[in-house]
Fold each of these.
Amino acid sequence: MATEDEIIRIAKKMDKMVQKKNAAGALDLLKELKNIPMTLELLQSTRIGMSVNAIRKQSTDEEVTSLAKSLIKSWKKLLDGPSTDKDSEEKKKEPASSSQNSPEAREESSSSSNSSSRKEEGSAPSNSFIPSFPRAPSTSDSVRVKCREMLSAALRTGDDYIAIGADEEELGSQIEEDILSPIFQELKNTDMKYKNRVRSRIANLKDAKNPNLRKNVLCGNIPPDKFAKMTAEEMASDELKEMRKNLTKEAIREHQMAKTGVLLEEGIVKTSGPV
């Protein structure tokens, strides 16, 4: 419990630094964290990963950013699967009569933890403190580099990326890679089709009336490869989708009324016969 309290204390200090945009003393806090034995449970209960990632993004001190990256990298390893093996080993070791450590008890504890996490993060995934995306291959193409920068800038709209803890630069690069891949296979260049698709992603990410799209992309609910292929209709805000739905219903209704009117008119002509 003392360790958890210590991590929470450090996280609060870091959050204040981010709010004040003053990272003085961040290096000492990161060094403290480095000496604390970290577990998956502590990462999920304290959300320290978000605080460290926010400091990393804001600080201009190379030593701070380097240590923050190192900590995040080591913590991500805890999320990549060892906990699953550990759980299975513990299940084998524990006595059947133990109620406190029974699978049901662990399931209830896990459910409670995930539920709490979902409340804090909304629609963000509950099993990770920082969304993890595949690293995109580097490129020296000036057009592609510029597009990656613009996509990353669009993801920074509203500062949601800080709260979620996403690496918007890496995510922007991955989205660009997924946009290019199918087009490049077809056209073999970064032509207008590529640029138009990039522009449409940027416009929708920056849309003030559609913040949920950006948040869902940042937290991983919409993976980069899926976002790269989404149509304008799929990216639209809930409000716009509802408006389109109502317009479609109205158009169908008017078409049916017009058709009914024509049929009635034809029926009158037929029944009346020649004069």
Amino acid sequence: MNALLYMASSGGAWQLLSKDLPPFSTVQKYFYRWRDDGLLRTINNELVMAAREREGREASPTAGVIDSQSLKTTESGGIRGFDAGKKLKSRKRHIVADTLGLVIHAADVQDRDGAPAVLKSILKRWPWLRHVFADGGYGGPKLKGALQKVGKFTLEIIKRSDSAKGFEILPRRWVVERTFAWLGRCRRLAKDFERTIASAEAWVFIANIRLLTRRLARP
């Protein structure tokens, strides 16, 4: 695990692992095993609950903030789309802050079309998650109808006030933007280097595990 945390932070290739860590072939073998058997997701979930309880909250969240970001893909990357807004070939990463419910898909799919898949993927693990905050990109009856099929979610769209001038901090939106900023400190996530969606998801969990272990280690 230390080797994977190192790779997430440094962004280096498998063959460039530090010599004081296990051989890259061994690390790679465990990465694929833990990716496929769900261990990385399980570790992430346990750390999320521990961090929440440390803050005096219930272990399982009842509300989350969903957002997405477009990431440039490399030549070796797998499925990708074209983000017309940002003019780049990319994948779109969705997260739900606090639980890191994550789905990767081609970026030419609208934000609101990715939300049901994200929420469905975390419903079994976080059955009490019922209220979802999102920005205007997730608005519209199509998403609400899709969410009703997934579970009993209530959706609250966070909008900038009409009277606001210049930059305005929207507290609920700021939560997930801050999460993206924290994850962005890991160089492995600067671009989407992965050939598969499963690997891209696994590295986000590793980055969040790194964040949570450091936080829980503080006195």
Amino acid sequence: MLPALRRFVLILSVCFLFHYAAPSAFAQSPSRMLPSRGIALRAVSDSFMDPSGDELKRLGQPGQAIEQARNEVFSVLLAENSCSAWFRGAEPYAADKFRSLRFSIDPLGNPEILKVATFNETQGYYEPYVASTGQNVGWGSTIVLNSNGAFFKDSAHVTVVTSLSGIGYQGSFKGLSVGGFRGATLSARMLALLHELGHVLNLLPAESAGRSGAQLSSRNTVLVLNHCSAEIKAADKRVRELKKTSSSKEILFSPPAETVRRGRSAQ
């Protein structure tokens, strides 16, 4: 019994040490540890470094939209370019920290574009928020996406008001956008996620509510575009070309309708 008890205590000690030592090791250098640890450690590393993988699958189509944009942003951050260099200036492991972030969808987010107009003069349009997160927060933090914002929608109702806090009347529809990219497109989604990562890494100043906050948000978006516009456009172009290629292959290899009908009648 004594050797068996000694072995049990040893196994328990190893498990205890691995449980508390592994997370910090993963955070410092996850990629260097994976090859030497085997399948079990890879599973632990994936769940620690990529907590959103399974969560996004459970969200259905919205989750697919998030996952596509997330993968493209991750690829940009892994590569050597002006965008990744800017983010790595604040966090050497910017790509890994981005991968650790979680996502949630706000189903009750503001769905309207506010048009502030007084004395027959339009003072500005204020679109519903796209995304939000904490300022200078840690690994595994959450990005909240407005289900009614430009991440998922390409247009919204316009409500005309005399002030941002006033009650107005509903007008027509108007297109949504993120930094000039049409809403609900890959480019808009990538820009939104990179913008939020800028807040996570404290590269962008925090934005408050109201008119001044909206203006600061626009300036922050321009700053992200200054560093990442080329990479966003390149990713969008590559994905669109891949879609065209796959569509043409489907047409090329699909049997003619007449052939299908004859095959069925022969059976």
